[in-house]
Amino acid sequence: MDALSPSLGNIDISKLSTADKQALQQFVMNEGQKARIQSSIHALTDTCFRKCIPMGVVKSGKLDRYEEPCMRQCVDRFLDANLVVLRELERLRQ
Fold this sequence. Notes:
By secondary structure, the chain is mainly alpha-helical.
């Protein structure tokens, strides 16, 4: 059920106050943002894992001396790329 539907489960949204509707809308937006962040982290983890862990198996529950730096560098590049994109979006907003 989406945030704009007239009812939410057994709650009639049309009877909520304006402030409550705004709070609910903000909550839904925040939850959507959390979901997008979690999805991004999942994609990062998956990409770096496939790139750095041969055969997709971590031996002895630890990354070896080659896998750990690979994972670290992969994550660092992902974060660097995100910062570049965010800075450019911020620049375009101004």
